[in-house]
């Protein structure tokens, strides 16, 4: 095994595996694959290749990548395989945010995406770029987008997996600052709705109430009354925690269906 690979594995040991941001699990691979293999691996994990955006979740991922060192390159879901220069994700949704490498000064050498190279259809994240002004590749200090041929085999990858289900999700804090109650079990509050109640069942536990909603077509959330052992199945989900502050004897459950 080469010294470069040994150093790379040492860095990767600190970041490989799953890292949680609210109800999203980001899986950083320790193995290397080409782009299609990486995409399929994410699908097998019920997720998709990570697509950077101008948001906090991307800042979270970038913070983890900084620990990985400069030697690892990471596949993203961004690609222009179907139409040159039309960048989309793995669901063929067009990309509006970009963060291409701007090139080395003073002449923007190696600026991305590579002009005139139609075979480089998949986008990776990297922080080392070849530089004709130095004796070798240069670590530019942060991860940028770079287009490369999709059959390149020595790339790691990042999967984004939305966590579905009842109850608190790992790393989620249910607070008034959150824009959504999805994924959280809110003690002593109910979803204040009457017109959206599908029906009420009795002699339930919190778990059977949750399972009953999951098995009921159209049910998106439930109110469980532990004193009456009753379960209200509801066809809507709360959009914010303020909607949950009406009564005091219920536990609100969000299905967070995906």
From TrEMBL:
Keywords: Signal. Gene3D superfamilies: Mannose-Binding Protein A, subunit A (3.10.100.10). The keyword Zinc does not apply. Pfam families: Lectin_C (PF00059), PAN_1 (PF00024). Residues 21-151 form the C-type lectin domain. PROSITE patterns: C_TYPE_LECTIN_2, PAN. Residues 184-258 form the Apple domain. Residues 1-17 form the signal peptide. This is C-type lectin domain-containing protein. It comes from Capitella teleta.
């Amino acid at each position: 095994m080469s010294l470069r690979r040994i150093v790379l594995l040492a860095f990767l040991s600190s970041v490989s595996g799953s890292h949680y941001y609210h109800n999203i699990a980001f899986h950083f691979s320790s193995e290397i694959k080409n782009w299609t293999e990486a995409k399929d691996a994410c699908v097998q994990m019920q997720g998709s290749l990570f697509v950077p955006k101008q948001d906090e979740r991307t800042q979270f991922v970038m913070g983890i990548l900084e620990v990985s060192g400069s030697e690892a390159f990471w596949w993203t879901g961004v690609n222009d395989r179907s139409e040159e220069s039309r960048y989309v994700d793995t669901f063929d949704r067009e990309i509006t945010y970009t963060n291409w490498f701007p090139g080395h000064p003073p002449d923007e050498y190696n600026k991305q995406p590579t002009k005139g190279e139609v075979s480089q259809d998949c986008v990776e994240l990297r922080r080392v770029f070849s530089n004709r002004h130095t004796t070798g590749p240069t670590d530019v200090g942060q991860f940028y987008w770079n287009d490369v041929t999709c059959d390149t085999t020595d790339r790691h990858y990042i999967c984004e997996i939305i966590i579905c289900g009842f109850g608190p999700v790992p790393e989620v804090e249910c607070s008034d600052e959150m824009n959504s109650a999805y994924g959280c079990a809110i003690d002593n509050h109910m979803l204040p709705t009457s017109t959206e109640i599908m029906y009420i069942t009795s002699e339930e536990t919190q778990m059977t109430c949750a399972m009953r909603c999951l098995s009921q077509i159209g049910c998106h959330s439930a109110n469980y009354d532990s004193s009456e052992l009753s379960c209200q199945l509801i066809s809507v989900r709360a959009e914010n925690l303020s909607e949950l502050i009406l009564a005091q004897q219920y536990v609100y459950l969000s299905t967070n269906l995906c």
